[in-house]
């Protein structure tokens, strides 16, 4: 509808951190693709979320800006590669992120 988007601070940071100046890619985000001011639309879209995640080629969970020393990011990459055992302190700090406090995140995993 060509109206300016009002982004949450978290969504703004995610879009900023995920952008790639070398290539374009398609990104679906509920904060943009679902009218957050329309409860009927949100309810209908929530019913489709399972299908959306199943059919996605990739799912990105933005946990916020990286910690100062980058330890959390390195840890997440090591998990992805299957390197070593988890570091309990780093794992705890990751699970303290705001994203894990939302009720509906289970379907996103």
From TrEMBL:
Coiled coil: none annotated. Residues 3-108 form the Heterokaryon incompatibility domain. It holds the Pfam family HET. This is Heterokaryon incompatibility domain-containing protein.
């Amino acid at each position: 509808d060509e109206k300016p988007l009002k982004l949450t601070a978290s969504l703004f940071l995610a879009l900023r951190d995920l952008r790639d100046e070398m290539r374009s890619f398609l990104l679906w985000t509920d904060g943009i693709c679902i009218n957050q001011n329309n409860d009927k639309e949100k309810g209908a879209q929530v019913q489709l979320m399972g299908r959306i995640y199943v059919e996605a080629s990739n799912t990105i969970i933005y946990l916020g800006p990286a910690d100062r020393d980058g330890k959390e990011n390195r840890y997440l990459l090591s998990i992805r590669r299957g390197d070593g055992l988890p570091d309990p302190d780093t794992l705890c700090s990751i699970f303290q992120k705001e994203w894990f406090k939302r009720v509906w995140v289970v379907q996103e995993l």
